[in-house]
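re: ur question from yesterday

yeah so i grabbed the chain u mentioned. its 397 aa long if i counted rite. heres the sequnce exactly as i have it in my notes:
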Amino acid sequence: MKRLAYFVSHPIQYQAPLLKLIADDQDIDLTVFFFSDFSLKAYHDKGFGKTIKWDIPLTEGYKHHFLKYWGSPRRENWLKQPVATDIYDQLKEGQFDAIWVHGWHWLCSIQAIIAAKRLGIPVMIRTEANGLTEPLNFLKVFTKRTFLSWLFNNVDAFLCVGALNKQFFQKYEIDNKRLFSVPYAVDNSFFQKKSALAQPHREALRKSLGLVPNRKIILYAAKLIDIKRPQDLLAAYQLLSVDGTQEPEPYLLFVGDGVLREHLESIVLTTGWQSIKFLGFRNQSEMPAIYDLCDVFVLPSRFEPWGLGINEVMNAGKAVVVSNQVGCASDLIKDKTNGIIFPVADTRALADAMDWAIANSKLAGDSSLKIINEWGFNQDIKGIKNALISLKKVIKT
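ran it thru and got these structure tokens back, copy pasting raw so excuse formatting
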């Protein structure tokens, strides 16, 4: 059994079930080290513009420890974030065979890597980096490449969340022998079971939201902020009108909150249409029923490191439409099979993509379910084990 230490910023709703599954595996003795516990309490989310509290357990079923630190528990910027005081002692006492670090944007992550190298413990890293956005300023480019070159020289195995992530590492000339597939996944079993349980209550939910039966539904579920481009979706939806004044046949549901909500609602008021609904923020346990309700899910982001909402809705067997700046697109979207990838900010192309998805929602949804069944936590654990095996020459005996 390999003793594995995982370092991550805070308890994350998407990761909690994976960590429990790893902890249950007989080949891995997992301990999770968190830099902060802020997500366990109600906290103000700037993107949603409101206070939220997750309604699912985030730390149950696996060993974990909250690191001692100086400074703020939130990463506001490089100058204002926690500095851990007990990483080295925790690693030395734990006699770990390897550490796994999530990303490099926290000082604590860098501390963990430096401490591990001092103790001769192999380092694995996993990140959402995908190369879709790169700095244009020469100094920023030089600084980033210098930092990452140093960082990657201190990493023994790279856990790739998808194709773009793998290509990102390859651009830094990381040998393929050090790259391991650990897909960015959600708890497929949870979302499929919850979606199935929601089906008998679908019409009741539809009625409670004021939606008439047998009318298709397009769903957006994300923060209502500029980078997510909900305004592009609204503009494209208006193009679905047969004459520019008559409301389109499918409904459009916006789930989420954010600074753009008031602006979007004001636009909708000018149309006089009743087919567009704003449902506000919905917690994690509520989302499977919302996914079950829709026919097409749209994520039009200008930049999205991955887009785990796509994973979630695919478990409900739904058609998906995403921009070409969504990180998961090349892995999860098979063009005109389970959805369409459109050029970001091209509202005409987005409207056409939604037209196709509405017309082919059943077959596309079935394809989504088949695709996502091969992209889950079982593949993650397999990839982590493969990475640990590759480290046998580095791991102390």
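noticed a couple things. Residues 2-185+376-393 form a domain with the Rossmann fold fold (CATH 3.40.50.2000). also The chain has two domains: 2-185+376-393, 188-372.
anyway ttyl
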